[in-house]
Amino acid sequence: MRTNSVHSATFAHPRKNIESFGIRPGSLVADFGAGSGHYTLEIAKVLGDEGGVYAIDVQQDLLRRIDSEAHRKGLTNVHTIWGDISRHRGTKLRANSVDIVLMSNVLFQLEHPQGAFEEAHRILTFDGTLIVIDWSDSFRSLGPIRSHVFDKERAAEFADATGFRVREQFYAGAHHFGLIFHKK
């Protein structure tokens, strides 16, 4: 059926994108705005028993689903946190405590996106990595409306203002951009 091929070409593919991140077993990762947990669960598989992934979201029902799915798949390294990524200490994580922060398809939804960049900077280790994946445009019924699109130039500006530098871009799907930042 063509739906699968269209879906694969249209949306960001978590497993393929994770390969671009350089996530290694043993890392600690925070998935900001984890949503349905597609990235969280794939990252947990890559990390193995030595690492961990924090799925952070404001929607408790989504976090319960992630917990349930992780349990069903035998993933013991998934930790859900009910928190607001755009508030100072909203993730409830210690400063300098995670190696990688992932923000996937969340910036266009945030009222205060600068707060999410600041919180990422606070919790990342000195040589930590911030990964941003978001919609590159508005595609009719797919993604955000045009006025809510948070393009890669704007993401780079917010990151730079918060103490990050762009390391590289990567292909994140037909309708998404991918940027990798490091703390300055």
Descriptive account of the structure:
- By secondary structure, the chain is an alpha/beta fold.
- The protein has one domain: Rossmann fold.
- The protein has 6 helices and 7 strands, in the order H-H-E-H-E-H-E-E-H-E-H-E-E.
- It has helices spanning 2-10, 14-21, 38-47, 60-72, 113-123, 152-162, and strands spanning 28-32, 52-57, 78-82, 98-104, 124-135, 164-171, 176-183.
- A 7-stranded mixed beta sheet has the order 3-2-1-4-5-7-6, with helices on both faces.
- It is globular and about 40 Å long.
- It starts with a helix and ends with a strand.
Please state the average pLDDT score.
Answer: 87
Q: What global shape is seen?
A: globular
Order of strands in the sheet with the most strands? 3-2-1-4-5-7-6
Question: In CATH terms, what is the architecture?
Answer: 3-Layer(aba) Sandwich
Task: Give a quick summary of the entry.
The protein is of the alpha/beta class.
Features:
184 residues; alpha/beta; Rossmann fold; seven-stranded mixed β-sheet; 34% helix; disordered N terminus
List the helices and strands and how they pair.
Layout: H1 2-10, H2 14-21, E1 28-32, H3 38-47, E2 52-57, H4 60-72, E3 78-82, E4 98-104, H5 113-123, E5 124-135, H6 152-162, E6 164-171, E7 176-183
Parallel strand pairs: 1-2, 1-4, 2-3, 4-5
Antiparallel strand pairs: 5-7, 6-7
